[in-house]
Amino acid sequence: MKYKIIRGFHDILPGQIERWHFIENTARQVFESYGFNELRIPVLESTDIYCTGIGDTTDIVEKEMYSFDDRDGSSLTLRPEGTAGVVRSFIENSFYKKTPVSKFYYMGPMFRHERPQKGRYRGFNQIGCEYFGSQSAAADAEIILMLWYFFQKIGFTDSVKIEINSIGDEESRENYKTALVNYLTPLKEGLCDQCNRKLGTNPLRILDCKNESCREITVNAPKITDYLSEASGVHFNKLIQILDDLSVPYNVNDKIVRGLDYYTETVFEFTTDKLGSQNAIAAGGRYNNLVEKMGGPPTPATGFALGLERIVLLHEQLSDKEFKFPTDVYIAWIGEDTFIPAMKIATELRNNGKSVYIEHESKSIKSQLKRANKLDAGYTLIIGEEELKSGRIIVRNMKKSSEESIGIEDTGSLLSYIN
Ligand code: HAM
Q: How far away, in angstroms, is 78 Cα from ligand 1 center?
């Protein structure tokens, strides 16, 4: 084959896309019911937005970005995630002047040059939410509740766990980093090469290394929740209290530290044990310093993104519901003169929201009815020379095997019969 899709990228085909639509539409409906509005940002931004936003020493910025020089020599990057771009837009459009809080959702493709495997791609899709302007743990609790409710709605009731943690404010993190480095330094020979490097740059990330020997070492590492400042402790306890009061189930997992540098205080992941190692289907947390760091006024914020490919994979495992693009009406026509009247009826029905299938080549009635069956059409409508002469057509209800004769131009009766 001469042309092939790039490694780590994938097409979403008809037959698959219906499930995507179901998940995307449910997300829109749920997120809008919580007051989030859609924000569309470009897939291409200045590289420095991601370096500043995500952090220079993160895996994403160090080795996963698709960056290239524009014609004027400036560096551009295909977005590896949505938060940094949304913050750029929040500041550039002065949303902070317009309303005390701003709540956005976004969806679309993201790009990371990772090693592809099941559930991990180089081109993948996220739906994210970002909530600006609230310092309260109640805002964190509400987005966790909203995600939980979304997963219930798409049928993931028993397959998803919520893992939460706090990485505290800057003061908490600095104290914790010192304790962690002190604990790990004498054990560093047992750490993998990457973790040895992270010991000097980003020691918290050693906690979520998947390598077995690193895991054994970090099991007994000091816990960040023991190093939280008073304010961070209060924030985290309030979050836990609200989740308890709202009966949202969760585990506190002190190994959740997240791979992006902007987080402060609350971090969380929604995980499943049904997808192998790529077990996080959504993740996020609070980022109180990012807006200011990117040039805006100090603005607390919290948010998350869910991974659509992983959610679709899990949905395929859990739901035997068939997702098909429906054909409401199949119009069979026999004889050249019947094509235009058939097209007119098709147009009327389509203008009234019905999906209609009609052939464009002359075919036998047998092959047309075969096709109608294959498409699982709800109704079949037949127009031949006879019908044209009499001015009446036969409309067949394929599920009930009943039929009705209706005037060719009587769209009203036709619509009420097939509704
Ligand atoms: P993230 O953890 O990097 O966070 O990504 C969020 C979700 O996107 C993951 O839990 C996973 O489901 C999916 N995902 C990430 N990388 C891949 C990949 N290579 N292939 C398939 N799915 C993937 C963020 O992106 C943050 N911006 C989330 C956030 C928003 N935090 C605050 N606001």
A: 15
Q: Cα(284)–Cα(271) distance, rounded to whole angstroms?
A: 12
Question: Is the C-beta atom of 83 inside 6 A of ligand 1?
Answer: yes
- The residue contributing the CA closest to ligand 1 atom 22 is 307
130 in contact with ligand 1, CB cutoff 6 A: yes
Q: Do 129 and 303 meet the contact criterion of CB atoms below 8 Å apart?
A: yes
* Sheet of strand 37-38: strand arrangement: 37-38, 102-111, 123-132, 301-307, 280-286, 266-271, 161-166, 251-252
Which of 3.40.50.10190, 3.10.129.10, 3.40.50.2000, 3.40.50.800 would CATH assign to domain 329-418? 3.40.50.800
pLDDT in tens, 260-299: 899 999 999 999 999 999 999 999 999 999 999 999 999 9
Cα–Cα dist 61/51, whole Å: 6
Kind and range of the H or E element at 159? none
Predicted TM-score of the model (pTM) = 0.92
